[in-house]
Amino acid sequence: MLLTVDVGNTNTVLGIFEGKELIKSWRVKTDPRTTADELWLQFNALVTGYTLTGLSICSTVPATLRELRTMISTYFSELPTTIVEPGTKTGVQLLVDNPKEIGADRIVNTLAAHTLYGGPAIVVDFGTSTNLDVVSPKGEFLGGALAPGIEISVDALASRAAQLRKVELIRPKSVIGKNTVEALQSGTIFGFAGQVDGLVDRITAELALEFDESPTVIATGGLAPLIIGVAETIDEYEPDLTLIGLRLIHEKNQ
């Protein structure tokens, strides 16, 4: 069984694959102060009962990736391991100014999106930041857009505005909020949906200059359920897109 690990700035998502089927997944918080031994204790507790045959990992947190390397060499040295980094075979051509700047998760999502849905495509990843990654019909990474994520935007507003506070992130009854809570929920949920729709429309217009086919828009990420059904441009929802991409990359490298 393959253990896939996607280390994000806020959460770490782990998944167990048996062949091509994701049979179990977990979401835990990411703490860059966690040591290799602590990571092993956490991972070992989660995967008890599963016989691991390989590991596939991507990380946007350098400190955690360093400890993961130590953990692997100490506790999982016998397992075939794929870490998505420069030099790893992904099959994704990066058509950007500086390929080394591109986060591993964006490359992984590009491969998974093209494999599952073809291209062109736009992946909207709702995480610590909201990433829009653009995929060509050939599966190339064309670039995209990055915006502040939903939770950090709400946190920033609550910390900077004396009379505003954090609220439960749910869809309000109407766009016109009748109280402060509803107004904040409206601005957050409908505001971010409008941001995504606006960016998708502009990206689609640029893609139309080069490609005849309209892109498939795929939502993923831990905060995607907040916007699904509100944003009008999202075609597909695949919560495990990054884990699927990690499986695909592991297969290419082992």
Explained architecture:
The protein is α/β, with parallel strands linked by helices. The protein folds into two domains: 2-83, Nucleotidyltransferase, domain 5, CATH 3.30.420.40; 118-240, Nucleotidyltransferase, domain 5. The chain has helices spanning 36-47, 62-75, 104-117, 150-160, 180-208, 224-227, 241-253, and strands at 2-7, 11-18, 21-29, 54-59, 81-83, 121-126, 129-135, 141-148, 216-220, 236-237. The strands form two sheets. The protein has a five-stranded mixed β-sheet with strand order 3-2-1-4-5, sandwiched between helices. The longest helix has 29 residues, at 180-208. It is globular. The two termini are 14 Å apart.
- Distance from N terminus to C terminus (CA atoms, Å) equals 14 Å
- Could you name the ranges where pLDDT drops below 50 across 5 or more consecutive residues? none
Main pleated sheet: 5 strands, mixed
Query: Strand fraction band?
Result: 15-25%
Structural class per helix/strand content?
A: alpha/beta
Percent of residues in helices comes to 25-40%
> How does the overall form come out from the CA principal axes?
globular
Please provide the ordered H/E string of secondary-structure elements. Answer: EEEHEHEHEEEHHEHEH
What does the average pLDDT come to?
A: 93
